[in-house]
Amino acid sequence: MRLALDSTHDVGLVSWLESANDPSTDFPIQNLPFGRFRRDADDGWRIGVAIGDQILDLERVGLVPNADMHGLMDQQQAEHTALRRALSDGLRHGSDDAARFRNALIAQTAVEMGLPCEIGDYTDFYTSIHHATTVGKLFRPDNPLLPNYKWVPIGYHGRASSIGISGQSFARPIGQTKAPDAAAPSLGPCSRLDYELEVGVFISRPNAPGERIPIEHAEDHVFGIALFNDWSARDFQAWEYQPLGPFLSKNFASTLSPWIVTMDALAPFRKNWTRPEGDPDPLPYLDSVGNRETGSIDIELEVWLQTPAMQKAGVAGERLMRSNYADAYWTVAQMVAHHTVNGCNLRTGDLFGSGTLSGPAADQGGSLLELTLGGKQPIRLSNGETRTWLEDGDTVILRGYCERDGSRRIGLGECRGTVLRARAD
Q1: I need a labelling partner for 365 at 20 to 30 A (CA). Which of 57, 97, 232, 384 fits?
Q2: Which alpha helices (DSSP H) does 152-288 contain, by range?
Q3: What's the pTM?
């Protein structure tokens, strides 16, 4: 487990860049997440680190030789740690390198953010037992959890090509649905469009085909975490998911936040991973002392909704729910260990989705499917509007942050996406 705390995590550490010392910033000097940016469409993507309201251009400051994010991610842990310390040393108050680092800054508002790296493969897991139970009750009230859930980190292979970056807009998807009393299905726009609150886990170092990654070394193959919204067409899903699972209900759009918060930055916010009393212990390949002691990550997660009426009135949005990643039934290390136990080779830049992250309370559902009980109980917003499913023009914003006594609050930025009307052609 990558849990070493050092001077870069010091709660009293401040930067010469004043915006990084703002208590409300997601990007203090203790965070230092990685992403890719460009100044305009004719410029190539560059690797940057978020600090306050600025981006540090790593190539310009001389800390990386080129803009190869995969090459950076594929480095050994010792090299990642050394780079983090060099960034911290150059950005901290009183640094001898302050002038050189200042010349490599650019405002976050002055650039276009891209996907943090090229994503080759994408696997979506189902790690929240609270989500699995609530959704299961909608369809199987007497037997909500299938027998394999507590034994297997369930997942399916998704579509990487339609993953976009925060700020994207996408057209309401069109697909097949079948009404219960209809003789045949019909083609039309999705009428039960939903979001899914997830985190994305980025793979750093690959494993060879046939090589298992033991759980004790699983996080050596993980670079960090971002926010992830796996938009879902629930009406398509109900018609198509048997016998092979999600297809067109999931592959039309997914949205990522632009910054990868590294496992090093998350080290102060680890906590023990436990199972409820009476649940089975995982099989040995999914179990370790380290995973039990520090496998969970304490990340507060929120979903906000801004309707067109809110936008017109100048309202930034309304929070729909809050949950915590530490409530997940399966950990990052367990996902990696299970994904490779059969010899599957992971590659640098692969993305894992956590699956919808819901909490134990009824108001902590990570999707509208849960919050509205399958569409039977609309949500009433503070401006008098209601929502059962997403409507055209709605913007969904995911936010995440870590805070703990004795540590500086860090954030994951935001993951924002807007639904447009279905295309006519």
Answers
A1: 384
A2: 234-240
A3: 0.97
